[in-house]
Prior knowledge:
Number of helices: 12
Strand content: 5-15%
Largest sheet: 4 strands, parallel
Radius of gyration: 18 Å
Helix content: 40-55%
Amino acid sequence: MKDFEAIKQNLVRFITTEVQARGFESVVLGLSGGIDSAVVARLCQLAFPKSHQALLMPSKQSSQTSLTHALELCKSFGISYQILPLNQLQSAFEATLQGLDSNPLRLGNLCARLRMVCLYDYAFANHALVIGTSNKSEIMLGYGTIFGDLASAINPIGNLYKTEIYELAHLLGIPKSIIEKAPSADLYEGQSDEKELGFSYAVLDKIMQLLEKGANENEILQQNLSKEALKLVQSRIARFEFKRKMPQIAQI
């Protein structure tokens, strides 16, 4: 069993040290109303109590519940925040890019990148560093948007599986309304990460943890884990490896 109090202290120290090493004294992050960004927001607040900023950036298809939960977190802990609706930006792209508004995944990727545009603009204008909010499960499974939610200067939770994020969230006092709702990228109304993936994070994380320890296929299946889930994990890790790497630069 991991010591999540020690992990919390280590991550706060990581944020402080890494931000200052890059010559900054303030941070900014996108706050979606989900558990991952809620955890990062609290860690950032602990690391930089007077110089942190959360940007709440609802798109036209975002659920009102997500915004409500993000505001609940900010008001519960006194987290500094701004609301930057994406409506006008999104409409401009829909008018320019044919068929964009008829493809939910394409539209979701656009909004993820628009949010990162807003974050990096805020960072530039306010001499702040952008903090990432993607967990290890999402990174390993390729469940994120390149130059969207996967972009950041540093990421404090990128080595924590989704199931471990819940443990840290409880320790940090994240509201139950956020902890208990179904994980969602909020790409469209009713969207669910686990429904799209086909398996719960509890199952997927267990498989990834066993693979990380060097377990073979037979050893994993002996843990009463689904062969279909194992194949999904293996295929996604291989297929989306490119998302975990920096752009390849040609050698001359």
